[in-house]
Amino acid sequence: MKTIIEPFKIKSVEPLRFTSRRQREAILKNAGYNLFGIHADDVLIDLLTDSGTTAMSARQWGGMIEGDEAYAGSKSFYLLEKKVNDLTGFRHIIPTHQGRAAERILFNITGGTGKIIPNNTHFDTTRANIEESGAKAIDLLPPEATVPSRHSDFKGNMDLSALKELLEKYGPERIPVVMLTVTNNSNAGQPVSMENIHQTAELAKNYGIPFFLDACRFAENAYFIKLREPGYANKSVAQIAREMFSYADGCTMSGKKDGLVNMGGFLAVNDDDLAQKARNILVVTEGFPTYGGLAGHDLQAFALGLDEVIEEDYLKYRIRSIAYLGEHLTELGVPIFQPPGGHAIYIDAAAFLPHIPAHEFPGQALACKLYIDGGIRSCEIGSVMFGKTDSASGIFEPATLEMVRLAIPRRVYTKSHIDYVVECVAGVFRKREKIKGMQIVYEQPVLRHFTAIFKPL
Ligand SMILES: Cc1ncc(COP(=O)(O)O)c(C=O)c1O
């Protein structure tokens, strides 16, 4: 059969609430034109993020009843520890309430003033945690990987020559860790090849620097390797993932993505000394080392989610359903970041709205329009999230790309929901000349996109 179907049937449903266009206009205005400020109940199709929005399986919900809530030595922790250890090979598994808590612990130990931490592209929380420690976060993506219309199999790859240059210049004295994010969320969820993971690891090793994966979407990345990289077609996703992790000294993980849970994360490392330091921080900021920031039932669901995420029927459906949205938008002429990545479609807002300059935030303008027209909540990933205005000189520094991310929650929406999204984007595209830019009237110095208030121009 050619049709790829959802590899599950639906047992429990959550009704959607329909609103009128007039209601949505008022709701958006009240929220300061910031989609993070809207009540989820006022959203019809929520594509804000794929993080923590997963529909858990009956097995996971059942497992939650079995979750062991012991303060110390919970059997749910040992189950998670074993699964993570089998999957990654890392010796020390430090549970945290989500990915950024693992990042905070890691950079609290390794970061600090004068330090430099390279990555293919840092996610916003990773960058924020590094900068909070006083260190500098550097993105090293080959320039051609950021061209949205350019098709290539592994546009998430690290720029190896730029990394070598950086390592040569600063060495281990200034560079405590080399990171690599799989898949590369901030570059449209593009995968990283096994060859690139291996070579990045080798480079870091040559300079005696630990190499860490940001492994939030390790399974989606592993499946792309299986589909696209010579020599991997006949390997299982578990084998590919294991090889990916084998090159690293540790990882940070948000279980809210490829852990198939609504909350959870971990820091995993091989180094005994680093693990001890991390547990010392954990016990002060998150909790005792056998629960970290999580309830026993969260640990249990997370452990079971890690089994389900590497099932190939699931990954086939997952990657195909993202491509389905991307292909339909492309057929309509909508400019998207090509090829479709692992968890989302990224609309190229700069090409969609060429009449809106970066400092008038084309991505934010488009995201607002998608909400008003169709009740769809998306996320600006452009100059609102990554741009900066220097407070002294007033000079505006735009982001590399102006994108709107349509992130697809795992196992939540059906094909007809996606068809509705295609129809809505197509309608907005036809009227794109009429869309106007936005101005920021209030912002916080860190992660401003969460709370900024906008005014339509
Ligand atoms: C690549 C990447 N790293 C880290 C994080 C942070 O994870 P969390 O939201 O669980 O703190 C995210 C979340 O979206 C992410 O996409």
The kinds of small molecule bound in this structure are:
pyridoxal-5'-phosphate
Q: Strand tally, please?
A: 16
Mean pLDDT: 97
Strand order of the largest sheet: 2-8-7-6-5
Structural class: alpha/beta
Residues in helix, %: 40-55%
Shape: globular
Oligomeric state: single chain
Enumerate the spans where pLDDT stays under 50 for 5 or more consecutive residues. Answer: none
Gap between N and C termini: 51 Å
Total number of helices? 16
* CA-based gyration radius: 21 Å
Strand percentage lies at 5-15%
Major sheet details: 5 strands, mixed
Can you walk me through this structure?
The termini are far apart. Strands 2-8-7-6-5 form a 5-stranded mixed sheet, sandwiched between helices. The protein is built from 16 helices and 16 strands. Strand 12 (388-389) and strand 13 (396-397) form a beta hairpin. The chain is globular, with a radius of gyration of 21 Å. Helix 12 runs parallel beside helix 16. With 457 residues, it is of the alpha/beta class. The site of pyridoxal-5'-phosphate has 14 residues, from helix 4 and helix 5.
